[in-house]
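Hello again,

I reread your note about wanting to compare the complex against the isolated chains. To keep things tidy I'm splitting this into two emails, and this first one only covers the full assembly. Below are the input lines as submitted, including protein chains and any nucleic acid or small-molecule components. They are followed by the predicted structure of everything together. The single-chain runs will come separately.
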Amino acid sequence: MNNKEFKKRVNHFFKVEGIDSLSILDDEPEPFFSKNYCHCCKNQLAGDRYSCNGYNSKTKEIQENYEVCQDCIQYIYNNILPVKN
Ligand SMILES: [Zn+2]
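Full-complex prediction:
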């Protein structure tokens, strides 16, 4: 997946879920191994996932149970894209 496609998927995820932010759960800061796809970029490769929640400013509610890969975390937290040019 290239960066353009990656960004598109992440933006799509935020839009579909209606969330403004995504955060790693404070009580589960360590990643776990999963064979499930990343909820955010839909990456299907098995690998580390972080348990995350998101804030929906419209409903003013926290939405939970997202499993998010390292690439998405790097992008959302540090604005670092997965493919290095
Ligand atoms: Zn991802």
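For quick reference: Residues 38, 40-41, 43, 68-69, 71-72 surround zinc ion (CB under 6 Å).

B.
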